[in-house]
């Protein structure tokens, strides 16, 4: 199920947060931060796949729209 925001998509240059759950041994996953940000959308590859980048020197990441939020 997708939210109404995801149907329209994001615009190039918009700032977003990336969902990237990382499990650390010995800590409760409930207390760990799962959202990383802020990233800038560089390109739109298709309706649901985007290229994002933390800053101009950082490596680009290709992610699905379900892992992004404004």
Which features would summarize this protein structure in a list?
5 strands; 37% strand; single chain; disordered N terminus; SH3 type barrels; 1 helix; mainly beta; five-stranded antiparallel β-sheet; 70 residues
Task: Report what the structure shows.
By secondary structure, the protein is mainly β. The chain has one domain (4-21, 30-69): SH3 type barrels. The chain has one helix at residues 4-8; strands at 15-19, 35-44, 49-53, 61-64, 68-69. The chain has a 5-stranded antiparallel beta sheet with strand order 4-3-2-1-5, with no helix packed on it. β2 (35-44) and β3 (49-53) form a beta hairpin. It starts with a helix and ends with a strand. Residues 1-6 have low confidence and may be disordered.
Q: What is the fold-level CATH name, i.e. the topology?
A: SH3 type barrels
SSE pattern: HEEEEE
Number of domains: 1
Query: For the terminal residues, how far apart are their CA atoms?
Result: 18 Å
CATH class type: Mainly Beta
Averaged pLDDT: 86
Biggest β-sheet: strands ordered side by side in the sheet: 4-3-2-1-5
The percentage of residues in β strands lies in 35-45%
Report the sheet with the most strands, covering strand number, pairing sense and barrel closure.
5 strands, antiparallel
- Helix percent reads under 10%
Structural class of the helices, strands and pairings? Answer: mainly beta
Give start-end ranges of low-pLDDT stretches: 1-6
Large-scale geometry: elongated
Helix count from the secondary structure assignment: 1
- How many β-strand runs? 5
Would you identify the CATH architecture? Roll
Radius of gyration: 13 Å
Organism: Exocentrus adspersus
InterPro entries: Integrase_p58-like_C
Domain Integrase p58-like C-terminal: 39-70
Protein name: Integrase p58-like C-terminal domain-containing protein
